[in-house]
Amino acid sequence: MSNLRVELKEKIIEQLNLEDLSVEDIQNDDLLFGDEIGLDSIDALELIVLLEKDYGIKLTDPAEGKEVFKSIETLAQFIESKQ
Amino acid sequence: MRKEFYITASVKIKNNEIFKNDRSIFKVNRGLSIQDFLKEAYQFLDLSYAKFHKMDVLCKLGIIATTVLKEDYSSDTALVFQNKSSSEVSDFQHQEKLNDFPSPANFVYTLPNIVMGEISIKHQLQSENAFFIAEEFQPQIIVSHTESLLKNNKASTTICGWLEANLNDYYVFLNYIEPQGEVVFSAPTLLENYIHE
Q1: For tag attachment on chain B, is the N or C end more exposed, with fewer CB atoms within 10 Å?
Q2: Would you tell me which residues 155-174 of chain B have a C-beta closer than 8 angstroms to some C-beta of chain A?
Q3: Nearest CA of chain B to the CA of A49: how many Å?
Q4: What domain range includes position A20?
Q5: In this model, does residue B134 exceed pLDDT 70?
Q6: B103 and chain A in contact, CB less than 8 A
Q7: B50 to A53: CB separation less than 8 angstroms, yes or no
Q8: What number of C-beta contacts closer than 8 Å exist between A and B?
Q9: Which residue of B has its CA nearest to A39?
Q10: Given B53, B102, B105, which is nearest A42 (Cβ)?
Q11: How does pLDDT run across B57-92, given as a tens digit for each residue?
């Protein structure tokens, strides 16, 4: 597993207070919003802050966010494409 | 004749200890932080409610207290709360982050009435609610508002009392009020139970 993907899982668990989950519980392709991980709209805002704070990436297009935040994999690919 | 209502259950949370109907049901070391105490209480109650971990201290106290107070609630159970410090804990956390990256998850808790929303979601309430801010416990306001809701059929039962969390301490004292019971719901009784150790 790539370091970035593990790092994202760790950050999301810590910053979104997902105390019932561990890194091993989140698969790269799990849907972050929906039945699998169950994030909500406030979590989406936290992810936007996380992107800007930790990776210097500003997400300005809401439509883009829907695709970027689909899974750990899509999020990691988005960050890699901006670096 | 004046219609009377009754206190049929109470919960108190203070000094890292939970009391139900004046009987201690859970206690941890007083040196433990409030966050650690609430986490232990969550596990003790076997809550299995992941959203709990995202809540601020005030909401966590409200969820723990109402879960202890009663197992099930009618959906028209009203909430009538009071405290001194409003949402102070979250307010200060938000203020500290204003010059950096404010957290949306923190910001949403910078109102005291959010706890009533969280309690309503958890216990599936669709009811009246009010949150009064007062320098100290004023049972007469709670009693008059609660009685008004019950007398006017705006609620069948009510959870009411004091739900305080500030930067230094916390104190929760909630009561379940029904049309039938033994202990008459009144301001003097509430005050006596509030200060009772």
Answers
A1: N
A2: none
A3: 7
A4: 3-82
A5: yes
A6: yes
A7: no
A8: 29
A9: B51
A10: B105
A11: 999 999 999 999 999 999 999 999 999 999 999 999
Domain count, chain A: 1
What's the pLDDT at A61? Answer: 83
Q: Which residues in A66-79 are b (16+ Cβ under 10 Å) and which e?
A: eebbbbbebbbebb
Provide, as residue numbers in chain A, all residues whose Cβ is less than 8 Å from the Cβ of B102: 49
pLDDT tens by residue, A56-83 = 999 888 788 889 999 999 999 999 999 8
Judged by a CB distance cut-off of 8 A, whether residue B104 touches chain A is: yes
Determine whether the interchain pair A49/B53 forms a contact, defined as Cβ–Cβ distance below 8 Å.
Answer: no
Can you tell me the distance from the alpha carbon of A83 to that of A78, in angstroms, rounded to the nearest whole number?
Answer: 9
Q: What is the pLDDT of residue A38?
A: 86
- Which tokens belong to B80? 């009538």
User: Which CATH architecture group holds B6-195?
Assistant: 3-Layer(aba) Sandwich (3.40)
Per-residue pLDDT tens for B139-158?
999 999 999 999 999 999 99
Please determine, for residue A1, whether its predicted confidence score (pLDDT) is greater than 90: no
Instruction: State how far the alpha carbon of A79 is from the alpha carbons of A1, A4, A5, B99, in Å.
Output: 16, 9, 10, 25
Q: Distance (Å, rounded) from C-alpha B182 to C-alpha B15?
A: 29
Chain A: residues touching B (Cβ < 8 Å)? 16-20, 38, 42-43, 45-46, 49, 52-53
CA distances from A49 to A44, A59, B34 (A): 9, 9, 27
CATH number at residue A31: 1.10.1200.10
The yes-or-no verdict on residue B170 having pLDDT over 70 is: yes
The percentage of chain B sitting over the pLDDT mark of 70, rounded to a whole number, equals 98
